[in-house]
Amino acid sequence: MIATDRLRMLPLKVEYAGEMAKVLADPSLYTFTGGEPPTVEALEARYARQLKGPGRADEQWLNWVIQHDDDLIGYVQATITSGTAEIAWVIGTAWQGRGFAKEAAQGLVTWLQAQNFVRIIAHVHPDHTASAAVAAAVGLSRTDVVEDGEYLWSTERQAR
Ligand SMILES: CC(C)(COP(=O)(O)OP(=O)(O)OC[C@H]1O[C@@H](n2cnc3c(N)ncnc32)[C@H](O)[C@@H]1OP(=O)(O)O)[C@@H](O)C(=O)NCCC(=O)NCCS
What we know:
Layout: E1 2-3, E2 7-11, H1 17-23, H2 40-52, E3 59-68, E4 71-81, E5 84-91, H3 100-114, E6 119-124, H4 129-137, E7 141-147, E8 150-154
Parallel strand pairs: 5-6
Antiparallel strand pairs: 1-2, 2-3, 3-4, 4-5, 6-8, 7-8
The structure holds coenzyme A (COA).
């Protein structure tokens, strides 16, 4: 569990799928990332896959749901490969605009740095100002590298 002032990041469980399907139900959440609201069943299957992991020894998937008071409000994730952690964040529409994404992402970055992941990266769509603000707030810098239409952001200024 990773705790910040207002939030708790709880390691993913399949049982969260019912409540998370409601958090992820707004189609506008998918404007910049693609995809669509998942059904409970699809989310259960996704969570089971995520918990099983990639099945490759050199890669690890870490997933948390974000809890505020008694509500689940979003999720953060980190994909770990050879010293690099790629992070992503989603906050349900009802809870956006209150600094929760920044707070959750900062909690995750602090935790990853404590585990000695020196290189932390994220991919952000060029038009996604809210997500760019989150990336900048947690110490990532935008590189000039574009992958699948998204900028690579990194704790290292020089992309590798
Ligand atoms: C990106 C996202 C996580 C932001 O969540 P949030 O909790 O509203 O973000 P915060 O409240 O921490 O605010 C982060 C910044 O975005 C800005 N922001 C928030 N909503 C915004 C909006 N609709 N348009 C523009 N900027 C916005 C805030 O002003 C803040 O920047 P500032 O502190 O410099 O002013 C949320 O919009 C989301 O989940 N979107 C859909 C999923 C997604 O695209 N995830 C990102 C994949 S990289």
